[in-house]
Design goal:
This protein has 15 helices and 9 strands. It has 389 residues and is α+β, with helices and mostly antiparallel strands. Strands 1, 2, 3, 4, 5, 8 and 9 form a 7-stranded mixed sheet that branches. Strands 6-7 form a two-stranded antiparallel sheet. Strand 1 and strand 2 form a beta hairpin. The radius of gyration is 25 Å and the shape is globular.
Amino acid sequence: MEFEALSLILKRLYHKYLIPLFVINDEGHIIIPQNSDWTIDYLNQDYLKLPPKNTVFFYENQDYFFSTFTCDLSDKNYQVLVGPCGILGTKSDTFTFHDHDYLAGVHYSKETQPTFVEFVELLYSLLNGQVLSKKQHKWIYRNRRVTAHTETILADNLYNRRFEDPFLDSFEFEKRYVEAVRRNEPEKIEWLFKKVNYTYNSKLSHNKVENLKYKYSGLITILTRVSVNEGVPVNQAYSLSDSLLQKLQKIHTIAECMSHIKETSFLFMELIHDFPYSETNYLVKDLLNYIDTHIYERITLKDLAESVQKHPTHITAEFKKALGQTVHTYINQKKVAEAKHLLLFTDKSYKEIATLLTFSSQSHFIQIFKQFENLTPLEFKNKHVTTVF
């Protein structure tokens, strides 16, 4: 690819995502973007450490993400530096370089870890002509502190594991288990449960049932996060998690616990793969989760844009592309779905529901409800309430 064309592509990527990126030659000079005011001395040297071929270094400190990898262009080897990218949710809104403040939302974006990784994977595929796998990721964390008490426990556990060595088996089991749930592979779940007694041996309690419950709680936490990452609304994922954890109180034998873990596996598989937006990108998933968790509030395009720190025009286009409908239509659809539940399973009147769901007026609520259901809220309740009860 010609440098002029590549430079244009990278420039457009920066304008779209607001994540700075640089191509550096073997002499340490920034060649893309051309005429850049930034030089490679703007970062600590460890950020510029050259990774092995086919490996990508990801760096995370308290406020920023960075990444670096190599690529071959015109039969020459170059280093690609990505960042700074602010970490979504952190307080810092400026990156200072050479006494100049670069502002979040103007000069650089703030992202979650998955969306930053998604961008780096896109860039790597573009420049290297191959897809980046998770095995090629290497994360380096800085400015993390561990208390002295935790360090002592950590040292003891490492010492014990050198002799008992259950960790690798436990880790392998959890990794395969989560992947089987994520990929909807029930037959692999069955196989893993036949192996569990031989592999899942690390001790967290002297009581065998309590030991299994601790591990099970950890698996539920992992599966809940996986579900959210796969596009399940936060409320649905955590509601399932809470109900499964509450059931643990009534379990008193290993057999009951194992049966409950297996039931959990299939419930999470069903939740992940029945949800219609599991294949959407992380930006849209974040927007869906925001709508789901704020359904009883007035949700504006400005609110959504601020929640993901993107321009309203950008999120509008991405949302429409992923779901085939506008943000406004989707919000109304979700509010009507919630209204249907309230009409059927509570004693609230449609007037109260209109207020609860922040419709501008009762007539507006009736108009939107009829648009989706071809019935007024009262007609819907009269038609279906006898069926439900």
